[in-house]
């Protein structure tokens, strides 16, 4: 049996199926709460400083279905979501919520995945480096930097990086996606947002890996590996690292979801038209269908990424049984 077949055989299929079934009522509950909470909020998407004529208000209500009973509006909205239709945007003329999500989600996903990837690589290396040198000056230095990374919020580090590397050195763009005709995601305008979002993850992951590697190096199977005559590098690479990575897998799934939703602040700082920016603008402009669409996408990502983390944990640790 190949390694791929062995990995497939360890996938907890029954557990995965149960989790997917549980996700259905979970998503329905999120949609229900978000729908009725937005309707309970005062005002509406078409309220302005001047009151509209009654005929205009009636026409708008008929166009968007506001003249129907609330339960009918809810059922119509849920029915649209089930077929992938999040409805029209109340504020962006000529575009549906699906169009806006399709425009903004790739930017948010790119920032989130790159930031999490950078956090995992750099944080793991720093954590292992510090853990293997416990109570040394290198250990204290790495942990001191990690504490600073955790303590300083991204809305502080972002402007500082802009001041140093964009306005000062001129290496990277201040924000946005460039100017015509060079509009798009590139290293010039994406590096600083990714680094800003990755810094807290680097700090957290380095602390997590340090504690995990210290505990793993004291375990019985490491002593057994050393007694077999393996070199210290072989002990670390073959036995210590795979075991030490397991707590990181448990952290990575929820952390990825937090990074995705946490990119709201980053997108506003760097002027990136991601889903987070659309979510904030939709909330400020009372574009309720856009806010609902963003909430559903974020909730779906959280459910999916947590499930993937559990499956990966089972693949890496044969002792884990979800069934």
Question: Which characteristics define this entry?
Answer:
323 residues; globular; single chain; mainly alpha
Structural write-up:
α2 packs antiparallel against α13 and α5 packs parallel to α13. This protein has 323 residues and is mostly helical. It has 13 helices and no strands. It starts with a helix and ends in a 7-residue tail after the last helix.
List SSEs in N-to-C order: HHHHHHHHHHHHH
Give the overall pLDDT as a whole number: 82
Radius of gyration: 24 Å
- Helical fraction: over 70%
| Overall outline | globular
How many angstroms does the end-to-end distance come to?
22 Å
- The residue ranges in which pLDDT falls below 50 over 5 or more consecutive positions are none
Largest sheet entry: none
Summing up helix and strand content along with how strands pair, one would put the structural category as: mainly alpha
Number of separate strands: 0
Sheet-strand content, in percent, reads under 5%
Number of helices: 13
């Amino acid at each position: 049996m190949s390694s791929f077949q062995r990995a497939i055989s360890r996938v907890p299929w029954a557990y995965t199926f149960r989790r997917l079934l549980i996700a259905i009522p979970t998503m329905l509950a999120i949609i229900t709460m978000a729908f009725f909470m937005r309707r309970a909020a005062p005002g509406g998407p078409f309220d302005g400083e001047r009151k509209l004529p009654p005929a205009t208000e009636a026409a708008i209500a008929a166009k968007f279905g506001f003249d129907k009973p609330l339960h009918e509006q809810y059922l119509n909205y849920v029915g649209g979501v089930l077929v992938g239709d999040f409805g029209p945007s109340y504020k962006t003329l000529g575009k549906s919520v699906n169009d806006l999500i399709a425009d903004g989600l790739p930017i948010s996903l790119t920032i989130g995945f790159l930031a999490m990837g950078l956090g995992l690589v750099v944080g793991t290396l720093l954590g292992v480096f510090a853990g293997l040198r416990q109570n040394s000056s290198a250990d204290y230095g790495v942990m001191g930097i990690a504490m600073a990374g955790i303590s300083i919020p991204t809305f502080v580090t972002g402007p500082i990086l802009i001041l140093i590397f964009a306005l000062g050195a001129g290496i990277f763009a201040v924000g946005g996606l460039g100017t015509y005709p060079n509009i798009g995601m590139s290293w010039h305008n994406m590096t600083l947002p990714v680094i800003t979002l990755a810094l807290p993850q680097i700090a957290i992951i380095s602390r997590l890996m340090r504690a995990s590697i210290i505990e793993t190096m004291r375990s019985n199977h490491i002593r057994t590996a050393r007694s077999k005559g393996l070199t210290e590098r072989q002990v670390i690479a073959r036995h210590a690292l795979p075991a030490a990575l397991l707590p990181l897998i448990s952290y990575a799934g929820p952390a990825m979801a937090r990074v995705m939703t946490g990119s709201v602040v980053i997108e506003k700082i760097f002027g990136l038209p991601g889903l987070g920016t659309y979510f904030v603008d939709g909330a400020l402009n009372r574009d309720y269908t856009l806010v609902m669409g963003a909430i559903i996408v974020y909730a779906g990502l959280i459910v999916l990424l947590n499930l993937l983390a559990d499956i990966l944990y089972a693949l890496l640790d044969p002792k884990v049984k979800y069934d």
